[in-house]
Amino acid sequence: MTDEPEFDLGPVPHRPPIATELVERLIAAQFPEWAALPVRPVDTPGWDNRTFHLGDDMLVRLPSAGEYAGAVAKEQRWLPVLARQVPLPIPAPLGEGLPTADYPHPWSVYRWLDGEPAATAKVEDTGAFAVAVADFLLALQRVDAADGPPPGLHNWYRGGPLRTYDAMMRSAAADLPDGAALLDHWEAALAARWTGKPVWFHGDVAPGNLLVRDGRLSAVIDFGTCGVGDPACDLVIAWTFLPPAGRRLFRERLAVDPATWQRGRGWALWKAAVTNDRPVLDALLADD
């Protein structure tokens, strides 16, 4: 039994394709001052959003389904507030697009941030990188959380209880050869209850959302799952990207208590299990 709230994630959203021509029409109709700029899709398509270059210095970001559209107003409202208080560049909203008959969701135009995702970039010093990520998260957590968005469908309940993903985790573990061991770690994460004060979190601190220039962390992008709640979800990068020495530095810099670290491991475990990410699962099982 648990007194944690239970949330229904619902079915996997249907995500129809978004054509370049549609984006061109949206820009021409709602931002005619940019209508002459070329539109082209980015190299790596996202899941929650489809992103397109707009000229050389801007991007257009469109939710891929209605279930993801709730993040638009949140980002428009809060990213300018957060940007003033974190040590690295984050996306700056330049305009908010309205739904139309052809595209029924709100959407955004942002300033383009240069950098290569850490997933493919060469990081010169993973220890320094780990400390830089931790310092960014510490600054984010210091931002006044009053009136900030609590966990909800807008961010798929990041910052809320891990138990929201319990059924999904158990289903994934049933198909994995070391599922029993993974569930032992999962149970430990569920038992590590959060009793802290809600703080700001990013919600998806993944290698694809950390930009690198000259071998160093240069910007943090994609705040669609940000919110105010339990920051343990932001610890996932410790296992998905950082080597053991960097992981230790990351934990020390954040001064993370054992229960929060255990919940962070749970978030990483869930994501790795449902995607069958073997290297991350092995890292989690080895990191006792």
UniProtKB/TrEMBL annotation:
InterPro entries from the xrefs?
Answer: AGP_Transferase, Aminoglycoside_PTrfase, Kinase-like_dom_sf
Domain Aminoglycoside phosphotransferase span(s) in chain numbering = 45-267
Q: Which domain of life is it from?
A: Bacteria
Keyword set, alphabetical order:
Kinase, Transferase
Keyword Kinase carried by entry:
yes
- GO molecular function ontology, one term from the record: kinase activity
Which PANTHER family does the record associate with it? AMINOGLYCOSIDE PHOSPHOTRANSFERASE-RELATED-RELATED, BIFUNCTIONAL AAC_APH
Q: What is this protein called?
A: Aminoglycoside phosphotransferase (APT) family kinase protein
